[in-house]
Amino acid sequence: CKCECGKEMIHESRYLNNIKSNKLIGGCRDCKAKRMERVSESRMWEYCKISARNRTKEFNVTREYLFDILKQQDNKCALTGLPILIAIGARNHQHGGTTASIDRIDNNLGYIEGNIQWVHKDINILKMNLSEEKFIKLCNNKNSKLQVTNI
Q1: For residues 53 and 114, what is the distance between their CA atoms, to the nearest angstrom?
Q2: Please, are residues 30 and 5 in contact by the beta-carbon 8 Å criterion?
Q3: Where is 84: in which H helix or E strand?
Q4: Dist CA 143 CA 151 (whole Å)
Q5: What are phi and psi of 105, to 5 degrees?
Q6: Alpha-carbon distance 3 to 8, whole Å?
Q7: How far is 50 from 48, CA to CA, in rounded Å?
């Protein structure tokens, strides 16, 4: 069988009913993984749009812009440097596999270009509606055991 990327694979005859025109439906592992990643990103983007709409916040960023920021941050929380993940698959997402969350830098503005960053979901819960400056100041208070650095 030949994947759409051109990679050839050998499959047992019992899987031949999954093959059309000598091409494997679903593709090779690499193509399937890339497709699942795109689906997960789409799911996350749709979730963010719905969440913003439910809270009557402006949401005016493209999916490409959103995930370019995640790549620029090297899949790490903008405030702590913790790794952040977007779960592959709905079940994994529902069971806590996603740790990524979009934060509005200025909470008075919506989800617009220049006002969003990716943070760990637990950090976003802690930050809530605080300004980034106030949140970092509180975390770095000499009596606080939590230390946050703006990376």
Answers
A1: 19
A2: yes
A3: none
A4: 22
A5: -60, -50
A6: 6
A7: 5
The residue-averaged pLDDT of 109-133 equals 91
Distances (CA, A) of 125 to 38, 104, 118, 135: 26, 12, 13, 11
Report d(CA 105, CA 90) in Å as an integer. 28
Encode burial over 92-122: b for 16+ CB neighbours within 10 A, e otherwise. ebeeeebbbbbbbeeeeebbeeebbbbbbbe
Give 101's strand partners: 119
Buried b or exposed e, range 7-41, using 16+ CB within 10 angstroms: eeeeeeeeeeeeeeeeebeebbeeeeeeeeeeebb
53: left (phi over 0), alpha (psi -120 to 50) or beta: alpha
Tell me: the pLDDT tens digits for 60-80? Answer: 999 999 999 999 999 999 999
